[in-house]
Amino acid sequence: MIRLGLRLTFRGGREAVARLVITALATALGVGMLLSTVAGMHAVRAQDDRYAWLETGAGFVHPRPVPAGTTPLLWSLSPDEFRGRIIARVDLAALGDRSPVPPGLTRLPAAGEYYASPALVTLLKKAPHDQLAARFPGRLAGTIGAAALAAPDSLVAVVGRTPQELHAYPRAQAVRYISTTSPAECRSGCYAIGIDRNGVQLVLGVVAAALLFPLLIFVGVASRLSAARREQRFAAMRLVGATPRQIAVVSTVESTVASALGVVAGCALFAAVRPLLARVPFTGARFFRSDLAVPAAAWPLIVLGVPVAAALAARLGMRRVSISPLGVSRRTTPPPPRAWRLLPLLAGLGELTFFVFAGRPRTTEGQLAAYLGGVLVTMAGLVVAGPWITLLASRLLARGTGRPAVLLAGRRLADDPRAGYRAVSGLVLALFAASISIGIMATMHGKRIVPTYGHDPAETMVLRLNTQEFPGSFTEPPGGRPPAVPASLVAQLTAVPGVRGLTLVRRDVTEVGRFADPFLGLVRCADLPHTPALGRCPAGAVTARIVVADTSEGRSGKAVVPVASPDLASLPVIAVVLDGTRGGLERARTVLERAFPHFVPFSIAEEQANRPSNQLLEQFQRLADVVVFASLVVAGCSLAVTVAGGLAERKRPFSLLRLAGAPLGVLRRVVLLESGLPLLALAVVSAGVGFLAAGLFTRSQLQQTLVPPGAGYYLGVVCGLVLALALIASTLPLLARLTGPETARNG
Amino acid sequence: MTETLLRAIGVELAFGATPALRGADVEVARGEMLAVMGPSGSGKSTLLHCLAGILVPDAGEIRLGDDRIDVLPEAARSALRRDRFGFVFQFGQLVPELTAEENVALPLLLGGTRRPAATARAREWFARLGLDGLEGRRSGELSGGQAQRVALARALVVEPDVLFADEPTGALDSLTGEHVMELLTATAREQGTTVVLVTHEPRVAAYADREVVVRDGRVTSLVPAP
To answer: What is the mean pLDDT of the segment spanning A618-627?
Structure first.
């Protein structure tokens, strides 16, 4: 039987080969996606692990055994930036000749030397010296190896200092070992660097689950190709005595061969897209290609699991076909779908509505379970309700029409609405996914207030001197008070080419006893025009209280408030604000870093971009784009395969209609209507349900009313639908070929 | 006394609410050629399907020799069709993906005969039924008459006890139909095969030893063939 199954699979004619190829292709896409997801998760872990050494000296890293005789190393980590890109900078000084060496280095840099990552070396060569290289004292001793780099384009510098120099660094501490505790493993007290590994892996899992729907539909569509012919074949075999078991063996062989080929093609596909995947910065950084590896334990599961799953599915799927040796001749019309099919959809939306009134769950895990569960049930609800909606639309279409094409299409859809829906189900789900993600993203973007005051946020730089800003924390400056800003430095900064203006912000002493808010400060109104991003004083005001680069979204854009004029010159400077070109600001940053090595200057644009919530939003946006794009591609494939397969299946009735005098144009309209009608009807429903679900989510989770998407969404939907109709139309030339008079005779 | 090989006793079968057989009784003797006639929708094909173990009656019995076959499990009825029955239908009974030779060898392959032996036996039938040169063709590449002869070869290759033929000439022109019927009757008689032939054409029924008429789900008359 296995040999016969192989014979039918490979030499069963063009239709059998087409079915084999398309099923293998669908499986290949699934396997490729599965491998990409597993490799992506591995890459996220590998990337996160390579941030571990930067946690050296952090409070709660797991201690490591220190070899006897190890001498301490003075270590200070500080973030730096260049044109929006973060540079991890470690200043260190060995206190003996047996100090630990960080990964990626063969030896510690001596004082007056530094090591840089390959990407930083390139940048150092490209950027003007006074904008970047001048920040690193001494000579470049070599490049940092990949073992210390989270990503191929990571910007990292390890700068050698004398112990005396480093003792002056407030964050410098003596360490005896280099941390191997990754940020994800570090529960508290660690630096907020790296990535939210668990979060990204969870989101990747969600992406894979979201892509699984259209892929399973595609595999299902492919396996149903030429179903009538297969039924005829199996019925003929049953007639001459093949047992249901023998038929199941043949069918299982076919499915297993197709899925095995799909696994091979999927592995090849993964190998081909791996370099491209490595370039997708879904954690905010690109990946080393070697990071996108599939763990050895996962290979047998995928390589053997997929064909076994396909074989089981074939076995289950053959139950219906193997019932009778009379095959299709005794097939009865299935009962029409009923209105209860709306219940799962209503249940999904009901769950999301519940949280609008009951309030969102408190924990992140709870929220994830609640909303993800609601969205998945709604998605499944669309799948279940689809045939009923198709039936409704087809009855409306066929009612009272006098046009033969409309009547034929309407009646056929009403006869088997499940088949009509199946063709477009992938696109319907893709549209749902697009609508819900775009709805949520539009609302989240709408919620984000960007305090630019009509000014380019990349052209304003702030150096805060009243706190030491460090990833994840604000701490007191050394000595508990801001360092003085000498007049010579102000003069030097204003003389930097590209710097247009400078404002000194001083400690707010106008409200004694109030909570010391590090973001509030006083300025001279006369200075504000030099730094337009800080706002404008009302006419006549001399001194004002302002908010300096507020990182809390709720306070952004606060007005400039005039206050009584104290003696500003006697108050300590808490922030230096500069306005200038991007190049000018990088030069100024170099000057500032050399003057205040313990503080980190940042542009407002960088501050916004590096805010964790914004980074997360960008990552979600990227992943949502991937889901929508991939879903649309897969769904388009499903649609084309279904329509073309449907034509091949029905070539005999169509050719009989042609023989009976039906013009080809009528048949073309039938085919277009059969897929177009459910597509358009369900597009409206799925987009509506998508936005409703998005609105319910934003109401309960973000306490925001849904922000309608921009024109781009509608344009995208219309283009997608036109493309889908074009896909259907592209199969129409087959109609003329398949429905020739000889088909009616031979069929 | 002639031995009864196949017998339907009080067979009833309904498709949903529509009764197809309402207590049909018929007997077929070993080596006999029985024509089952009747108008469209009378239940004659359903009776054949019940006799062949394709359909299981709602009531009544089907006996092959002394054994009831209507109570056999599906696998046993499949084995019966494979080893002891042969079928020739109006159309559609060939597996489209297989060549004519593979189609003829199929019942043997299903029964576990090794491929070379099955192919050799299939080839014998190609020679006997004048199908030489058509071995490598698929069903779509055969004429109606050729396809029916291939189906006949496939039905006879297992040397069945009973050959069931349902409108075997229904899709053929009269000349080709006659040729197929001559081959069918000649080879069946030569092998001593019992034949149950469903037809609504008196001309085809004339090849049989005896005729029964099915009307409204009952075998209403027994008419000796002229």
So the answer is: 73
Determine what percent of chain B falls in helix, strand and coil, rounding each to the nearest 5. Answer: 35, 30, 35
- Residue A556's pLDDT is 45
- What is the four-CA torsion angle of A505, A507, A512, A515, rounded to 10 degrees? 90
Degrees (nearest 5) of the Cα angle A359, A362, A367? 80
pLDDT tens for each residue of A26-66? 888 888 888 888 898 889 888 888 888 888 877 665 666 77
Write out the two tokens for A720.
């997608």
Residue B99 per-residue DSSP state: B
Cβ pair B54:A243 closer than 8 A: no
- pTM (two decimals): 0.70
> Could you tell me if A466 and A723 are in contact, meaning their C-beta atoms sit under 8 angstroms apart?
no
Question: What CA–CA distance (Å, rounded) separates B215 from B40?
Answer: 9
Which chain B residue is nearest to residue A244, measuring alpha carbons? B75
User: Can you tell me the distance from the alpha carbon of A739 to that of A720, in angstroms, rounded to the nearest whole number?
Assistant: 29
**How many CA atoms within 13 Å lie on the side-chain side of A317?**
21
* Tokens matching residue A64: 């490591």
Q: List B residues 119-148 in contact with A (Cβ-Cβ < 8 A).
A: 138, 140
CA distance A452 to A533: 6
CA A402 to the chain's CA centroid: 49
Six-digit token string for A489: 């430095």
Assess A228–B contact: CB distance below 8 Å, yes or no.
Answer: no
Q: Please name the helix (run of DSSP H) or strand (run of DSSP E) that holds residue A551, with its range, or none.
A: none
Q: Which of B40, B89, B110 is nearest to A250 (CA)?
A: B110
A237 interfacial to chain B (CB closer than 8 Å): yes
**Per-residue pLDDT tens for A136-155?**
888 999 999 999 998 899 99
DSSP 8-state class, residue A741 = H
B14 at A interface, C-beta within 8 A:
no
SS3 call for A412: helix
Instruction: Give the list of residues 6+ apart from residue A452 with CB closer than 8 angstroms, or none.
Output: A533, A604
Chain A residue with minimum CA distance to B80: A241
For residue A461, what are the β-bridge partners?
A: A578, A603
Burial of A3 (0-12, 13-18, 19+ CB in 10 A): exposed
Residues 6+ apart with CB under 8 A from A245: B75
Residue A395: pLDDT over 50: yes
- Encoded tokens for A202: 């969870």
Average pLDDT over residues B61-74: 89
B55, B74, B106: residue with CB nearest A240: B106
Q: Is B112 on the interface with A (CB under 8 A)?
A: no
C-alpha to C-alpha distance for A664 and A670, rounded to whole angstroms: 10
CA–CA separation, B183 vs B35, rounded Å? 16
Q: How far apart are CA A265 and CA A272, in angstroms?
A: 10
Number of other CB atoms surrounding residue A742 within 10 Å? 9
DSSP code string of A640-651: HHHHHHHHHHTH
Q: What is the pLDDT of residue A62?
A: 62
Work out the number of other CB atoms within 10 angstroms of the CB of residue A92: 25
3-class secondary-structure state, position B21: strand
Contact A241, B81 (CB under 8 A): yes
How confident is the model over A21-37, as pLDDT tens digits? 888 888 888 888 888 88
Q: What is the pLDDT of residues A274-313, one digit of tens each?
A: 999 888 877 778 899 999 999 888 888 888 887 887 777 7
B77 touches chain A (CB under 8 A): no
ipTM: 0.77
d(CA A698, CA A436): 10
Distance CA A623, CA A36 (A): 13
Q: For residues A679 and A666, give the distance between their C-alpha atoms in angstroms, rounded to a whole number.
A: 20
Identify whether the C-beta of residue A59 lies closer than 8 Å to the C-beta of residue A189: yes
